[in-house]
Structures are given as C-alpha cells and as structure tokens.
Amino acid sequence: MPATVVLGAQWGDEGKGKAIDQLAPLSTWAVRFQGGNNAGHTIVVGDTTLKLHQIPSGVTSKECNLVLGDGMVIDPWVLDEELSRWESLTGEKPEGDRLFISERASVILPFHKYYDSADKVVGTTGRGIGPAYRDRIERVGIRFTDIEEILSDQKMIDETVARMNKQLETVGYNKEITASELSSELQWILDRFGHAIKPTGMMVDLALRNGETVLLEGAQGALLDIDQGTYPFVTSSVVGRANATHGAGIHPGHVTDCFGITKAYCTRVGNGPFPSELSLDEGPGQHMAQVGHEFGTTTGRPRRTGWLDIVALKDAHRVSGYTGLVVTKLDVLGGLDEIKICIGYELDGKPITHFPTRASDVERCVAIYETHSGFPALADEDWISMAESSRKDGTGYDA
Predict the structure, then answer these.
(1) What does each C-alpha distance from 228 to 36, 175, 281 come to in angstroms?
(2) Backbone angles phi, psi at 150, to 5 degrees
(3) Active-site residue among 41, 53, 112, 254?
(4) Smallest Cα–Cα separation from 240: which of 254, 255, 256, 227?
(5) Taking the mean position of all CA atoms in its chain, how far away is CA 276?
(6) DSSP of 185-225
(7) DSSP class of 393
(8) What is the pLDDT of residues 237-286, one digit of tens each?
(9) In the chain, alpha helices (H)
(10) Contact assessment for residue 264 and residue 274, using Cβ atoms and an 8 Å cutoff
(11) Helix count (H) and strand count (E) of the chain?
C-alpha cells in the first residue's frame, strides 16, 4: 500500500497538522522523518489545546502507530514531558505500545543545548538541533542504538566527555560536563525509553508490504531546507520529499502522494530574507498577525507576515513535486480591501521569476504583485457551508 508525504511549502508553520488530522485516520502509521523539537504543532483534544514538538501529529488517531524516525534528532527529556502531558490528557501511554523511537535516531543531550545557547548565529531555537546534527555529520554523535554499548565502556564515556568539554570551551561555555553526568543521562534515557527503541525502518517497510498505509510527516518548510532554502538562514536537515523516505528508512517507490501545505499568505519566524514581507505595525501585515494568531508554537516569537509568494512556492514544488496543494488560513484574509500575490521579483532593477540561490540576493529582491479585490470576513459557519458546497462528489476531500 502507499505512503503519503505531508510537507511544509513555505517557512514552516503552514498548518501541516490540519492536513495530517484528515489523513491520519486513513493511515496505520505516522512517521516523523527529520528535525527535532525545533518543530511545533498544535492539536486540539476536546476542549484542550496541546502543543507538541516531537510526537507525530497522528497521535490523535488512536489506531495509528507513531514513529520518531531515523532522520530525527530527539530530545528525550522534552519527549518525556510531551508524553506526560498526553497521558494526563487522555490516560494513554503510547510509548512502546504504538509509539516507537528509531534506533538510528540521534540523541540530543544537555551538552548540545549548552553549546547552542553559547553559539547562536542565525536565530536558531536554541534547542540543540544544529549541534546534534553536526555531531552526526562528524560521526561522533550518539544514536539511541549506541547508548547501551557506551554505558558498558568507561573509555567511551571518558572520550565523549573530553570531546564535549573541548567543544564547549571553543564557544566560551564555562561549565564542564563530568563522566558521571553523561552516564546518568544515558542511563535515564535507557530506563525511560529502552522498551520503545526499535528498528523502525524495517517495521514500517514490513507494514507497507503487508498492505498498510503510511503517513510521512515533515517538519519546518521548504524554504528552511539546509540545501534548498535561504541558506544560511535555514534548519539543519533536508526538509523535502527526497528525505521523507530516507529519513523514515524505506525506499522512495512507496510514495504515491505528496501534499505541500501553504498558507494563503506567508509567515516566517526568526532571521532571513522575506521578499513579500509586510509591517507588523499596521495594515495587512498587522491584520494577518492578529487575526491569524501568528506566534511560533516552539519559540513563542511573533511571526513575520507577508503576501503569498508564488515564486517561492514554485521553487518548493520544483524540489518536492507536490501532487496536491493544501491552502490554509484563507479566512484570515477576510476583511481586507485588497489581496496581493507576489508573482515575480525585481533584483537590482531586473525582473526575475525564479527564487535566487544566495540569501543576499533574495534580500535585495523587490516583490512584483498581482492585486485582487478582497472579500468580507465570514463567520465560521459560513466557511463550513462554503467548503461543503465545494466538496467533490464521493472523494471526501474539499475542492
């Protein structure tokens, strides 16, 4: 059976969880394949709103197995907090029952957060994501499968601590990590999550070969991709379709659908170029921020807002080849007199229709807009009625 990919098509915060809420009940597995707790999604259970960062959004579908995949960097302490909140809300303890951690995933340790807090360069979330991926690339990071072996070898503990302290010294962090601290941290992880650490790639592959359906959940968005985004103002992992199956531990031939999620306007958290950006202090930009409640799930920082950028969206499609596009927050634009869409740029006075590679070039781009008449703000029931009237016969999906 097929695998379906859900990806952010902008700078993250597009509303991927809303699409996943619709798809998860149709899936028996939901897999996060990259990133860590720098991602954030909001789910609603009854009257309670819950903010999650590592647990897949498919958690709300009780028949759906959950995987923190090979390509992730996982903070076990944050995961413990999330699972505790989920248990207090629902009474369920999914870890080891229907939530599994890839043995190939990397561990975020307190060391990584110490380093990140002392070496902030591009407006990161400070959660140790970049340092954990750096250790992975340098082949010195600790994977979940490595914990038991390291705990049994004091030499490995001592060498790891020496390396960590040397790295902390380079960024001026004045606290040393001890061998006993690292051992205690690793032992806690093993005690807390050992029963949930599994060869998840093989499990998901077997499920697909047995006719089950898999949902691959992306984090962040296309324009934050380490290779294809507005480098260096990007995340530390590959965000696009090509990494979805690799980070899940399955082959790409399983994928039949890839949905790109985009808002009807743009938002961005943190530093980096944003050609269609508007002022948050007045006008449409302020309207989007206030009506759309634009604050980061992970950081709480106000999101920068701007008009929908078709140039950037086409670039995201070029890389990931979306088979479908899901547009969220169209209702936020209700009440504006006019709505603009960015259809091109001027770079140093010359018109272009592609997204530049260099962030410095993107910074100098002046958006070229197409202007449309606005529409009135509608009540929730009016939007529901409109969606129902546009529903395709027999498909169950909105047009």
Answers:
(1) 19, 36, 31
(2) -65, -40
(3) 41
(4) 227
(5) 22
(6) HHHHHHHHHGGGEE-HHHHHHHHHHTT--EEEE--S-GGG-
(7) T
(8) 999 999 999 999 999 999 999 999 999 999 999 899 999 999 999 999 99
(9) 16-23, 76-90, 110-118, 129-137, 147-151, 154-170, 179-193, 200-209, 241-248, 283-291, 310-320, 359-364, 380-389
(10) no
(11) 13, 17
Residue 327's CB is within 10 A of a number of other CB atoms, namely 15
Report residue 290: phi and psi, to 5°.
Answer: -75, -50
C-alpha 353/C-alpha 318 separation (Å) is 13
Contact 77, 70 (CB under 8 A): no
Residue 15 exposure: Cα atoms within 13 Å on the Cβ side = 19
41 is known as an active-site residue: yes
Task: Give me the helix-helix angle, 110-118 and 129-137, nearest 10°.
Answer: 110
Give the pLDDT band (50/70/90) at residue 396. Answer: very low
- Residue for token pair 């808002």: 263
| Cis amide leading into 232 (omega within 30) | yes
DSSP string, 253-291: GGEEEEEEEEESEEEE-SSS--TTB--SSSHHHHHHHHH
Q: Which domains does the chain have, with CATH numbers?
A: 3-103+195-259 (3.40.440.10), 106-193 (1.10.300.10), 265-389 (3.90.170.10)
pLDDT at 391 over 60: no
CA distance 62 to 214: 14
| 214 token code pair | 């898999």
Is 317 annotated in the active site?
no
Q: Pick from 370, 133, 367, 369: which is nearest to 273 by CA?
A: 367
Question: DSSP secondary-structure letter at 72?
Answer: B
Catalytic residue of the set 13, 75, 205, 315: 13
Q: Are 92 and 101 in contact (CB under 8 A)?
A: no
